[in-house]
Amino acid sequence: MASRRRRSKVLRLTLLVKKGIAFLFSHIGLCALVVAYTMLGSVLFRAVEGPLEKEVRQLARDCRHQSVRRLWMITYEYNLYEDEWIDKVLDELLNFKRTLLGAVWKGYDARDYEENVQWTFSGAFLYSLSVITTIGYGNIACRTYFGKAATIGYAIIGIPLMLLFLTNIGDILAKMFRFLYRRAYRLKVEMSLWQKRRKADRLRQIANSTVHGGVVLSRTPSPRPRQQHKVKRIHTFTAKDCHRYGSYKDNLRTAPRSSSLSEDQLSITRQQHARMKRTAVCDAAPNCLVSLPQHVTRHVDLEGMRLEALIQRYEFEEFIIRESMEEKLNRVLVPLWLVLLTMLAYLSVGAVLFAVWERWDLLDSFYFCFVSLATIGFGDLFPGASVRDDGSAQEKLVITSLYLLFGMALIAMCFNLAQEEVVSKVVHLVSKLGFWKSDSFEAS
């Protein structure tokens, strides 16, 4: 029994470990792992390098005070002897210079106050991030032997982890961006189809209003452009009414306005008769034809055929677009100009942000953002140089770290999208030149 319980516990523990490892290498797990690893590095390097920074600052402060006292003693003792006073002062200044250079080599930055130390949690967080992202500004570095050894081990583990994070997150962001772009493209196609459907419905209404109640009506010319294609209203005819109108159309001119006919008769006033002069054929009475000029009926037939052809054309175009829309959406690639515009927008936001925080020029801020996100990191400009005078300096350093972390993921996304577009263009160009077919290239 005891052995079975041990085996079950081991199996449960093994299952939990497998689930934990699978979660760590998932999308959310990788993000959490990178942030946790960076926070671990910030705690480690702050604990290692923080005391040395305070010690060096205290050493520089004591050295300065001692030099001032010695200068006063030299002046008090040798004030009447100029040559001896100059020699003693020069010796004291040389000693102060050597001590100060040693403090600078140990990381002294000419700041003596405790609230302006570099190895705070946010400063160490930015240092850890610059190590695993291979930016390496150089403004802050480990000075102790243990700190240097810890940096080597931290980078060996952190750099592959960061590359895995950027690959994974960049692929996710590329899929999201591609999905949004295809949704926008689908919306554009749907708007085009809606316009075609609206045109077809409008033409269908015109065609239906051209034949109403069996009487065909041609279009009447109008001196105004907006009324050239306006369809005239037609009243319904029966067979008896059509026969009566064909036989007694001349009597309509003398008919009184108040005359009322039976239900099988047609009520036509003189104004209605003027509007119905161009009536052609009555479907309810096939043998009953209205005596109208031949070119009018021919014009009606041509107009009806043209409208029907336009309706069929719009419906066919809508059918073709809908049939090929899904296939086209799967092949739609994000254009290169949109990728470059996204990168430019992110760099511009960072440029404005650092220009306000660091009091840099806009060009210097844009240069810093580009150099940082490209992992060049010259070190001539680095974050935190001017924000220490502000009370919210540490929060700004954390925001800077998050900006760099998300920015590198965005750059990875842009590289992913740009790679697809460039490969597609190259394959299309090579297939156009006739070296090989693009289908065979995609199949391989």
Structure explained in plain terms:
This protein has helices at residues 2-24, 27-78, 82-105, 121-132, 145-210, 239-247, 270-275, 294-331, 336-357, 362-373, 393-433, 438-443, and strands at 211-212, 215-217, 279-282. It is an all-alpha fold and 444 residues long. It has a domain at 205-331. Strand 1 and strand 2 form a beta hairpin. The two termini are 57 Å apart. Mean pLDDT is 74; it is low at 211-297.
Please outline what is shown here.
Helices cover 70% and strands 2% of the residues. With 444 residues, it is mainly α. The chain has a 3-stranded antiparallel β-sheet.
List the helices and strands and how they pair.
Elements: H1 2-24, H2 27-78, H3 82-105, H4 121-132, H5 145-210, E1 211-212, E2 215-217, H6 239-247, H7 270-275, E3 279-282, H8 294-331, H9 336-357, H10 362-373, H11 393-433, H12 438-443
Antiparallel strand pairs: 1-2, 2-3
SS elements, strand count:
3
Shape: elongated
Task: Give the distance, in angstroms, between the N- and C-terminal Cα atoms.
Answer: 57 Å
CA radius of gyration = 43 Å
Helical content band: over 70%
What percent of residues are in strands?
A: under 5%
Q: Averaging pLDDT over every residue, what do you get?
A: 74
Number of helices: 12
Indicate the low-confidence ranges by residue numbers.
Answer: 211-297
Element pattern in H and E: HHHHHEEHHEHHHHH
User: Helix/strand-derived class?
Assistant: mainly alpha
Biggest sheet, strands in spatial order? Answer: 1-2-3
Largest sheet: 3 strands, antiparallel
GO biological process, one term: stabilization of membrane potential
Domain Potassium channel: 114-174, 342-420
GO molecular function: outward rectifier potassium channel activity; potassium ion leak channel activity
Membrane topology: Multi-pass membrane protein
